[in-house]
What we know:
By secondary structure, the protein is α+β, with helices and mostly antiparallel strands. The protein folds into two domains: 4-118, CATH 2.40.240.10; 124-201, CATH 2.170.120.20. It has helices at 4-24, 40-45, 68-78, 212-235, and strands at 27-29, 31-32, 48-54, 62-67, 84-88, 91-102, 109-115, 123-132, 141-144, 148-153, 162-165, 175-177, 188-189, 196-201. Strand 3 and strand 4 (62-67) form a beta hairpin. The radius of gyration is 30 Å and the shape is flat. The N and C termini lie far apart (127 Å).
Amino acid sequence: MPDAAARQSVLIRKEVGVTLAMANDLTLRAEPRTIHGKKVSRLRREGLVPGVVYGPVVSETISVSVNRRDFEKFFMTNGHSTVFTLTWDGGKQPVIIREVQVDPVTRAPLHIDFFAPNMRVVLRQAVPVTLHNASPDAVGVLQTSLNEVEVEALPADLPHAIEGDLSSLVNVGDALRVADLTAPANVTIVTDGEEVVASLVAEAVEEEPETAGEETAEAETATESEAPAEEAASEE
Length: 236
């Protein structure tokens, strides 16, 4: 009969296998990259985005490039908190998208950092908050104060987003706080629970512009007040 240490070793191997399988369900294709520095502008003209793969499980930084359109679709769907497998000729690695540099004008991606985490070590990561179930009886305007929260979880357990239920926000002053968010299993929200995610605020009241009639009346009043003074001056 295997001892406790042997059973634990088997359990760890099984857990790692399940984790890697989950990451492998979602993949993005990359190509090895040998072009660096200012020359990467040529890659961008060809519809490619340069990137790097790095992390505690990668012995050295790996330079890659990905198809821009494929990446934009992938990133829009999966965001930056989803573990997936990045594949390229000669290698593959479970990663998350740690950072995307974008053009300040066109917002096109310029460079991507793919972070390769240790799949058995808890990771702290920012995760978007998605709001839903707004009450039809809500009074006021919904003001969003927080778009994402920090969580801790094993990489394979990182959620694509944390959902926020707005159904309890009905009157001006009602607020949804971080503590009201529900984290998935095996995920811990580490952002301060008192921080406001969204709240109902009073609608701004716009001042009505002066009408043409009011302006005409004011002009006539001013003209009448000036007439006696002009008459007196002419009599002198």
